[in-house]
Every structure is written in structure tokens, then in C-alpha cells.
């Protein structure tokens, strides 16, 4: 592009000017091409442009008419056949006068955001522009236009491009039957329901280009696509297709581009795809395809781009794919491929080879490092072993060998990769020496990830001027890398889980002064005063699990962009800066396990974004600030183990998203009382108010409305926080008598109530039986009286129940014996009487569960009952237990993922691993004299199973 008008001279014939075409006979200007001419500003109605009344062709594409309207005076060009105003930043409405240009053959107004066309203008275009062969309105707002009106366009139309126009509704007619259509693009109209390809039409054979990407289909792919025998380009990305890829596609013998990515196709790739002799681009990324990769794809000698990623292809990588002479991009990542890479290949011209996230193994063949044009090499998350080969050429820009089993050191030839921008070697068994000679030449390096390796630093200064991402977490380093001093553009720094000791150097505050947004120094041996960094651009700041002392500096009030602040598990003292409550985007404030004192700031403003506030384990006092009620997005509030006083904060019940409330071990007192709102705490799943001085009756009306504890549907009950790619929510909860830390609790199907160690009186409300998703219930160490409600037998998910140290009376309800998952039971130190129920889990509890209830009798107590009836025989008990499947219920532990740092997990798998399956499933009750021996034997077996 260049300013064409800059060469125009008034003393020369205008017909000789650049971009001007004149009629040879009349010398009238009939053509004006000022595309890519750096024109700017607005076109006014009195512009001299509109004096050119003989114009037949006008091209003003790719200029800079920012926010300029299209003048209605364009309607004066009555002879205009070609008009192109695309990519020129026009806005507003397409003027009605454009539709008056009845001689138009080609109209291109595409990509002028936010240009729109209204229904009257569109109707006139359809009715009046009967000579149109090309209509391109990509990016033009057409949400008010009825899709079926497209069928009324000019019968001469060969090109119709309405990409990303906001079309909506159902296109019922088969638009590929327009008589002359050759190019049709309706892509990225995601509210457009298309019913194409359902019938044949004779005229469709002329179609060469069809893009229906990101439109709405439903059901399987129609076989009639095979009738488009002249089709060269077919894009059906993200169209919701299901079923198998139709074999009729084999009829598209002229196809050069075939894109079927991001659908739900199943089955295998038809072997007939190997007959596409002219295809250059084949993409079936992100489907549900299975089976081996057809070796017939090795016949695609013209293919340059082949993407089979994100499917479930299995088996070996066909050697034939690595013999394709024109192949430049091969992407096979996230499949189930196995086996080694071939030891020898020849003639490869690959630019991009990506086979990460498979199960490939063996050593890395030398040819991988000897491809002269290779720019991207991604082999991560496989099972490769051995050493990294010598790099022969300098073309590599992206190298990812992370998450393998590679050993040895980095070859010194890595210094040849002067074009390298991304280097990932994380999670291997590599011994890496960061030294000047190897890395000083990598001036283009932007991303460096050596996490989870054995790293040594030759702490000599060298410059990586373009570095913006550095991850050296869990790499065994003991000092800050000095080369960071020159990392002026750094945005993300992760040095967590190392052995870095001492104070944070002052120069770290100058790193990435205007760009640093992520800093992670957690789990080191750092000490001294709180680190003072340049907080202006920080969004994520982690220094937990160190030994920092002193107060939180006032400079942190400059960090108004903070989203996550984690200072937990240090020795930080002083008061919480009031400004932290004022931050508008702060989502996570984790200050637990420090020595903070004073009161909680009372300045939480409306509209804040707090999701998690954790102040557990400090020395905070005073009352809870009422401004916490402004935290409308709050999901976790953990204030346990402080010195906070006052009454129960029932004003928090209006926080509709609150799922975790922990107030344990404070100085709260008084009665909980009745709710103040109609539906209090609708999403609360964990409430712990233990170790306070609450009194009065248990809050029956609150229990009535704990909807998240009532619903046993895991998809509705599980804590579903917005997953933060950096921060893992965690919480200490009393589980089965021990405090355990739940990590990443947003994926946990977990509910518990702990009111223990208070002064509650009265009876347990029967309505507790409605809380069917409850895992744990602890009312111990209170002054409760009356019977244990039989409705607790409805709590079929209950795993631990502690009612000890109360004044409960009456018999133990037989219904409790039906709680299949009950692992821990403590009814000790009450006034219970009668026979202890038998069956299932109750056959596993020992004396400790019932001690100091002088009126109880029966197994497992030595005290027999009066008029004792015969105990069930072992065969009877075994028969009872075998009502369940032989191997019990299986809880599958789900692995935890942390992309770019994201972790997935469930507590269910952890509990299965930690505590085993319910005892009644894996134990058979036998004679009383053998019970203890059998328990010891089974416990030993379970322990061995965990190892």
C-alpha cells in the first residue's frame, strides 16, 4: 500500500494519474482505484468525488474512514457496475441510495464494523440489483433480515459472502440451489439454523466454495454433499454434526480444502480420503474419531496441512505420513497413539510437527533436530526417554519437550536456535545448567519453562530482552536468577516450590516495571520483611508458605489491578490494610495463618468481585463488618481461628453464591435465631461454627432452606467456582474426626455441618433428614436433649456422624443402620438406652462409639440385653450384606489438571484412597469371638492395597 494520490500532479492529464481509468473515446473518468491509499477522514457530500458521474468502477477498500458514514451521494453513480468500500472503517447504516444502483454487478461492503443494513434497504437490494454476480457483506449487521429472503437474490449471483453478519433464524430452503452460485460463505452466523445438504439440485454442481462454519446444524451429515462434485473448498467447522463421516465425501474429487473440525463425528476416517489427490488442507481436529489413522492418507501427495488432533486415534503413527513430500504442518496431539517415532525419514519439509499428549515412547530420533525448515516441534506429554539430540539448524521457534522422561543435559547446540521464542522442557529428568554461553544468543526467547527439572544456575548476567514468561518452579534452585535484572518486559514469573532462601533482593522490584502481572514465590525459604515490588501492574501475587515478617506495606494499595492475593502461611503481623477491601477486581484474598491483628476492614464496597476471603488462623478481633454483605459474588468466607466476637451474622444469608462459611474457634455468642430473608443461604454447602459460645435451640428454619444440602444431584450440589488458572481454593475441614485440607474444592461433591463445642440446647430437629446430600454432621459437645430423630436415616450420603457429649436419650433409631456410607459414628457420652442396631456399617463400630451410655446394650458392648434374642447367624448377615454388588461401589479418582497452570480433582477419589470403601461392603460379619481378628486382617489388607 502507498498513497496513490501523492503522485497526482495538476499539470498532468488526470487520465495518467495512478489509480485513474478513462474512456478512450470520451476521456471521461470511468474507473477509480484508490484501495490501500492511506486515505483517512470522512467523505463529505460536497466532495469532488461525486462529480465523476461517469464512473463504472470505484474501489476505496482498505483505507481509514474512521466512523464515517457512507454518503447517500453514492447513489448518483448511475453507471456504476463495481463498488468496493470494504475494510475501510465505515459505520452506521448502508444508505438506501446504494440499492438504487441497478447496474451493479459487484458490491463489496464487507468488514466495516459496525455497519448495518436495514430491512427496507435489503429488500430493495434484492428487488432492484438483478444484475449482481458478487455480493459481499461480511461483518455487516443483518440480524433483522429474514434468512429465507436470500433465495430471492439475483439469479446471476456467483458469489455470496455473508460471513459473521448476525443472521438468525431458520434458512429452510436449499441455498446451494441458487442457479449460478459458485462461492457461498455463511460462516460464523452462530444463530443461523441451516438445513442445507438435505436434497440434491441440478444447479448445485457449479458450487466450488462452501463455508458454513459455526452455523447451527443438528443431527447427522447428509450424503447429498457428494453431489457437489466440483467443490474445492468445504468448511463445516463447529456445526454440531454427529454420526459418521459420510462416505459420499469420496465423490468430491476436486476438493483442495476440507475442514470438519470441532464437531461430534464418530467412527473412523474413511479410507477413501486417500483418494483426494488434489487436497492441500485436511482438518478433522476436535471430534470423537477412533481407530487407527488410515495408512491411505499417505497417498495425499499434495497435502500441506494435516490436523487430526483432539480425537481418539490409536495405534502407531503411520510412517507414510512422514513421507509426504509437500507436508508442512502435521498435528496429531491429544490422541492415543503409541510406539516410537520412526528412526529414519527422508525428504521431509515440515514446518510444524505437533504430536504432544499421546503415549509415544522410545528415544528421540536424530532427524527431529535436523529438519531445515522446522519452526514448531511439540512432543510434550508422552513417554519419550533418552537424551535431546544435537540441533543442526536455527529455524526452530517453538520447542516443547515437557512432560516426558528425558534425561541428561541440554545440548550446547541449543545456542544455535537464535530464532527460538518458546522453550518448554518442564517435568523431565533433565539436569539443566543455565549458563551464559548457551543462552546469551537466544535474544528472541519470550517463553522459558524449566519447571520440575534439576536446574543449576551459573549466576552470570546475560540479557533476554524479549522474555515475558519464566517458569522455574520446582527446579531445585536456591537463589534468584540474576539475568532477571534485565528482563524489562517480564509479565509472568514463577519461582515457587524451590529452596530460595533469604530476603527478596531489591532489584526484583524493578523487573517488568510496567508489565509484571503474575508473581509466584510461594513455598520457598524466604524471610525478612514483606517484599516490595512494583505493584502497579500486578494481577496475581503469591508468596504463601514462606517466613516473611513485618507488616503488609502501604505500597500494596497501588495494586488496584490485583485479582488474587495470597500471603498465607507466613509470619506477617500488623493490621489488614483497609485499601484491600476497596479493590474493585480483587477476587481472592488469602491471608490465613499469619499474625495479623486488629479488625477486619469495614470498607467492602458495592460492586466488588470478592469470591474467596480467607483470614483463618490470625489474631483478628472485633465484630464482622456489615459491609461484607456487599460481596455479592462471595463463595468462600473462612474466618476461623481468630478472636472475632458478636452474634451470628444472619445478614450474610442474602449472599446467594455463598457456599462455604467457616466461623469456628472465635468468640461468637448468643442464639442463631430465625432467618431474615425468605430463602437464606440457598447455596451453602459447608458451615462450620464450632468452638464458639452459641446457645439456644438449633436453627430449624435455617436447616429447612439449605437447598444445596437437600439436592443429591452432584451436578447441582458440587462447588462450581469459576476456575482460576492460577489459584487453588483450599479449606481445612473436620472430616471423620481429623482436620484435612481440601484442595481445589470447587470440584468437590461435599457438604458438612459442624456446630460442635457450643452451648446449644433442646432437641435435634427432624427436618435435618431433608439434607440428603450431607456428608458429615457434627453436633458434639453441646447440651442437646431428646431423641435422635429417625429422619437421620434419610441421610443416605452421610459418612460421619458425631453426636457425642450431649444429653440425648432414648434408643438409637434402627434407620441409622441403613446408612451405607457411614464410616465414623460417635454417640458416646449421652443417655441412650436399648439395643444397639445391627447390620451393614453398624457391624463395624467398636465400643468407643457408644461409651458412657449406661443404658445401651448389645454388640459391640460386653453388656448383654435383657431377654436377648438369638443373634443373626453369620450366613444371615452375609446374605444381608450381599444385597450390594460383590465388589462394592467404585469411586473413581479423577486426576487433577492445572493448564498453564490449571488443577482438576474430586474429594471423592481422595476419600476412597484415604479411608477405603464402606466397611460393610468389604467385611463379612462373623461370630463375635472372631470379630477383632477379622478387623485386624482386613485393615492390614486395606493398607497393603493403598501402597
TrEMBL record:
Bilayer disposition of the protein: Single-pass type I membrane protein
Name assigned to this protein: Disease resistance R13L4/SHOC-2-like LRR domain-containing protein
Localisation per UniProt entry: Cell membrane
Domain of life: Eukaryota
GO cellular component terms listed in the entry, alphabetical order: plasma membrane
Annotated coiled-coil segments of the chain: none
PROSITE patterns per the UniProt record, alphabetical: LRR
UniProt xrefs under SUPFAM superfamilies: L domain-like
Transmembrane segments: 889-913
The family this protein is said to belong to: Belongs to the RLP family.
Amino acid at each position: 500500500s502507498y498513497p496513490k494520490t501523492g503522485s497526482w500532479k495538476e499539470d498532468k492529464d488526470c487520465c495518467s494519474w495512478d489509480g485513474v481509468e478513462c474512456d478512450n473515446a470520451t476521456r471521461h473518468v470511468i474507473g477509480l482505484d484508490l484501495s490501500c491509499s492511506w486515505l483517512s477522514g470522512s467523505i463529505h457530500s460536497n466532495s469532488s468525488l461525486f462529480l465523476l458521474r461517469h464512473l463504472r468502477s470505484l474501489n476505496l477498500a482498505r483505507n481509514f474512514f474512521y466512523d464515517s458514514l457512507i454518503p447517500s451521494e453514492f447513489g448518483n453513480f448511475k453507471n456504476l457496475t463495481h463498488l468496493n468500500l470494504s475494510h475501510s472503517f465505515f459505520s452506521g447504516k448502508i444508505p438506501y441510495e446504494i440499492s438504487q444502483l441497478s447496474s451493479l454487478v459487484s458490491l463489496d461492503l464487507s468488514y466495516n464494523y459496525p455497519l448495518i443494513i436495514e430491512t427496507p434497504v435489503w429488500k430493495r437490494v434484492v428487488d432492484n440489483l438483478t444484475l449482481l454476480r458478487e455480493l459481499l457483506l461480511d461483518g455487516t449487521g443483518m440480524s433483522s433480515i429474514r434468512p429465507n429472503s436470500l433465495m430471492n437474490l439475483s439469479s446471476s449471483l456467483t458469489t455470496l459472502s455473508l460471513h459473521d453478519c448476525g443472521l438468525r433464524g431458520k434458512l429452510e430452503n436449499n441455498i446451494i440451489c441458487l442457479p449460478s452460485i459458485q462461492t457461498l460463505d455463511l460462516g460464523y452466523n452462530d444463530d443461523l439454523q441451516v438445513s442445507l445438504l438435505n436434497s440434491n439440485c441440478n444447479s448445485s454442481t457449479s458450487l466450488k466454495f462452501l463455508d458454513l462454519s459455526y452455523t447451527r446444524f443438528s443431527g447427522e451429515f447428509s450424503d447429498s454433499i457428494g453431489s457437489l462434485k466440483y467443490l474445492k473448498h468445504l468448511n463445516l467447522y463447529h456445526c454440531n454434526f454427529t454420526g459418521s463421516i459420510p462416505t459420499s465425501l469420496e465423490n468430491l474429487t476436486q476438493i483442495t480444502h476440507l475442514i470438519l473440525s470441532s464437531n461430534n463425528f464418530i467412527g473412523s476416517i474413511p479410507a477413501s480420503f486417500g483418494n483426494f489427490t488434489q487436497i492441500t488442507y485436511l482438518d478433522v481436529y476436535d471430534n470423537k474419531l477412533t481407530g487407527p489413522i488410515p495408512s491411505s492418507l499417505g497417498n495425499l501427495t499434495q497435502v500441506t496441512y494435516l490436523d487430526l488432533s483432539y480425537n481418539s486415534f490409536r495405534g502407531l503413527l503411520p510412517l507414510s505420513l512422514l513421507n509426504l513430500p509437500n507436508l508442512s504442518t502435521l498435528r496429531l496431539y491429544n490422541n492415543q497413539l503409541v510406539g516410537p517415532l520412526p528412526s529414519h525419514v527422508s525428504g521431509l519439509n515440515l514446518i510444524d510437527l505437533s504430536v504432544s499428549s499421546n503415549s509415544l515412547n522410545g528415544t528421540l530420533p536424530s532427524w527431529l533436530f535436523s529438519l531445515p525448515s522446522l519452526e514448531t516441534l511439540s512432543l510434550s506429554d508422552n513417554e519419550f526417554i533418552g537424551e535431546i539430540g544435537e540441533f543442526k539448524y536455527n529455524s526452530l521457534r517453538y520447542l516443547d519437550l515437557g512432560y516426558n522422561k528425558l534425561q541428561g543435559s541440554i545440548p550446547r547446540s541449543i545456542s544455535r536456535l537464535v530464532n527460538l521464542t518458546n522453550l518448554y522442557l518442564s517435568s523431565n529428568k533433565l539436569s539443566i545448567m543455565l549458563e551464559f554461553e548457551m543462552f546469551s544468543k537466544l535474544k528472541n526467547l519470550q517463553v522459558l519453562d524449566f519447571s520440575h527439572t534439576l536446574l543449576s544456575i551459573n549466576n552470570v548476567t546475560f540479557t533476554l530482552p524479549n522474555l515475558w514468561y519464566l517458569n522455574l518452579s520446582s527446579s531445585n534452585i536456591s537463589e534468584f536468577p540474576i539475568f532477571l535484572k534485565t528482563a524489562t518486559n517480564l509479565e509472568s514469573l514463577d519461582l515457587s516450590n524451590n529452596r530460595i532462601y533469604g530476603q527478596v533482593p531489591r532489584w526484583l522490584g524493578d523487573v517488568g516495571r510496567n508489565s509484571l502481572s503474575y508473581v509466584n514465590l510461594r513455598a520457598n525459604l524466604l524471610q525478612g520483611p514483606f517484599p516490595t515490588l512494583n505493584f502497579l501492574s500486578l494481577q496475581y501475587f503469591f508468596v504463601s508458605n514462606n517466613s516473611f515478617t513485618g507488616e503488609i506495606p502501604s505500597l500494596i494499595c497501588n495494586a488496584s489491578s490485583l485479582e488474587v492475593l495470597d500471603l498465607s502461611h507466613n509470619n506477617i503481623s500488623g493490621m489488614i490494610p483497609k485499601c484491600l477491601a476497596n479493590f474493585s477486581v480483587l477476587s481472592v484474598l488469602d491471608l490465613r495463618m499469619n499474625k495479623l491483628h486488629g479488625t477486619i476492614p469495614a470498607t467492602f464496597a458495592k460492586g466488588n468481585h470478592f469470591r474467596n476471603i480467607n483470614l483463618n488462623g490470625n489474631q483478628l478481633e472485633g465484630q464482622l463488618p456489615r459491609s461484607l454483605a456487599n460481596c455479592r459474588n462471595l463463595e468462600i468466607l473462612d474466618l476461623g481461628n481468630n478472636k472475632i466476637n458478636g452474634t451470628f451474622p444472619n445478614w450474610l444469608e442474602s449472599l446467594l453464591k455463598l457456599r462455604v462459611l467457616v466461623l469456628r474457634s472465635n468468640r461468637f455468642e448468643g442464639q442463631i435465631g430465625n432467618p431474615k430473608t425468605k430463602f437464606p443461604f440457598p447455596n451453602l454447602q459447608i458451615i462450620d461454627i464450632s468452638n464458639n459460645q452459641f446457645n439456644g435451640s438449633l436453627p430449624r428454619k435455617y436447616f429447612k432452606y439449605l437447598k444445596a444440602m437437600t439436592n443429591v444431584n452432584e451436578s447441582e450440589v458440587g462447588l462450581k467456582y469459576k476456575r482460576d488458572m492460577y489459584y487453588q481454593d483450599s479449606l481445612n475441614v473436620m472430616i471423620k474426626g481429623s482436620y484435612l485440607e481440601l484442595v481445589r474444592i470447587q470440584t468437590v461433591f461435599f457438604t458438612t455441618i459442624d456446630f460442635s463445642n457450643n452451648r446449644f440446647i433442646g432437641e435435634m430437629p427432624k427436618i435435618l433428614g431433608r439434607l440428603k446430600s450431607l456428608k458429615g454432621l457434627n453436633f458434639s459437645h453441646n447440651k442437646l436433649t431428646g431423641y435422635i430423630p429417625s429422619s437421620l436415616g434419610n441421610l443416605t450420603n452421610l459418612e460421619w456422624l458425631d453426636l457425642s457429649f450431649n444429653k440425648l436419650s432414648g434408643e438409637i433409631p434402627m434407620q441409622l443402620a441403613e446408612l451405607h456410607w457411614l464410616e465414623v459414628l460417635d454417640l458416646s457420652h449421652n443417655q441412650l438406652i436399648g439395643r444397639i442396631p445391627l447390620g451393614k456399617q453398624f457391624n463395624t463400630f467398636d465400643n468407643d462409639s457408644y461409651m458412657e451410655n449406661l443404658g445401651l446394650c448389645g454388640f459391640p458392648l460386653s453388656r448383654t440385653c435383657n431377654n436377648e434374642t438369638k443373634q443373626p447367624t453369620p450366613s444371615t448377615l452375609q446374605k444381608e450384606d450381599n444385597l450390594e454388588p460383590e465388589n462394592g461401589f467404585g469411586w473413581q479418582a479423577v486426576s487433577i489438571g492445572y493448564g498453564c497452570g490449571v488443577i482438576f480433582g474430586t474429594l471423592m477419589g481422595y476419600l476412597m484412597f484415604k479411608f477405603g470403601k464402606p466397611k460393610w461392603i468389604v467385611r463379612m460379619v462373623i461370630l463375635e469371638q472372631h470379630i477383632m481378628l477379622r478387623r485386624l486382617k482386613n485393615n492390614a489388607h486395606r493398607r497393603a492395597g493403598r501402597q
